[in-house]
Amino acid sequence: METRRPNSIGAQQPETLGQDDDDLSESEEGIQELEEEIRELQQQVQQMAEKIVDFRTTLPGQLKTTLDSILTAQRPLFDSPESQPGCSNQPPTSAFSQSEVVLHCLQTGGVSDLEDSLVKILALLVEALKNACRNAKIDVEEPGDALPGEVQKEAEKVQLLKQKITSNASAIPIVLNRMKEGMAKIDKLQSSNKVIHPAFKRGRTCR
Could you tell me which residues belong to the region Disordered (predicted)? Predict the structure, then answer.
């Protein structure tokens, strides 16, 4: 007499189908998460591109305006023939001529000589502020001394400006290292066949 075995395959089918459904749902959730991450990354890249375009458009003009406004009062310090561009074969030593180098580097996207120019500009500005304070007989190191109201305010402003310039000078190497790392990554991407947003394409570097 033939005995019938229980249909174990049929009993396992619902369980197998349930596992497949769970796997599919997990895969769909993973795909949705990846798509969401991709969208967020694309938004971040777009924001970075807009910021870079805005910086390249506005930063040179802002830097030139700021330097001109700061150095206008100190122009006699840079009026000697040796410090004027084109009057000597020596490299430019005034803040005016150094600012032209920085503006050219920012406009072309290059970093050559940018660090030296920025450091020289800040050093010249600090020296100009010290000379201005000495000429006005203002001790910027001790602005709390008894001075007339207007002179006291001017002394505090000069001291604050000096502190900001010193802080910016100490931060220049960090900023330049980040710029160089970012431009190296851009060069690496440009060597591949991938499509790159125009905002990330480098221009000619200044010499």
Answer: 1-30
Amino acid at 37: E
43, pLDDT greater than 80: yes
Collapsed DSSP state (helix, strand, coil) of residue 1: coil
Rounded distance between C-alpha atoms, residue 154 and residue 133, angstroms: 10
How many angstroms separate the CA atoms of 20 and 15, rounded?
9
Predicted TM-score of the model (pTM): 0.28
Number of domains in the chain: 1
Q: 19 in a domain, yes or no?
A: no
In a domain, 73, yes or no: yes
Helix (H) or strand (E) holding 71: helix 8-71
Dihedrals phi, psi of 134, to nearest 5 degrees: -65, -40
Domain region containing 179? 27-194
Contact 55, 107 (CB under 8 A): no
pLDDT at 157 over 70: yes
